[in-house]
Known about the structure:
single chain, binds fe (ii) ion, six-stranded antiparallel beta sheet, Jelly Rolls
Amino acid sequence: MFCRLLKVSRQGFYNYLNNRNRPWKYQLLADAMMEILAEDEYNDTYGRDRMHKALLKKNPEGVDPETVLYEVQCDDGDPEVPGSLSYGLTTIYPNRINGECPFTKGHWHMDETVEEVYEGESGTGLLMYMNHDGMTWCEKVFPGSVHHIAGTLAHRLINTGDVPLKVRAVWPPSAGHNYDEVTAHPFGFRVYRNGDEIKVTAHE
Ligand SMILES: [Fe+2]
């Protein structure tokens, strides 16, 4: 039985304005909104309704503030119990914005000696890695793909398909999650899709 369910919704975009300490959950929407604000000096007067309409206009693929971008179901192990394991199922929904494929915030492990295993359940995507030098690379994720993640690498999932990407994960709870580091030093690449073409491009 899962004891935790984390959902990340587009409604959170608006919350982002008042909660800049947690930009990772709403990064796609935040980027889209900042783009709108930069287009005209008067756009900074936009309220929720006008901003929503502007987002819909810019994103014909749809921007429903209630749409969940991704969710994580967790069954947490006990870090005080030697050998304990945590189990998680991440689902990323196929909601692209301006062609950008949806992604999880990603994280480093607090204890970088601790490894983790991902296994693709359904859908298609990428597992993006980054080392402390900023070197970044990806592995393809598909049903049955297995990914042994070194404790010294940041890792993030990206849905490049048209159906939900589901990935199972197992890790010792002693690993911990270091989100601050990816906020301070974000992944330098984003993934876009145009038709069947998938592009990984540097993000400025
Ligand atoms: Fe992890």
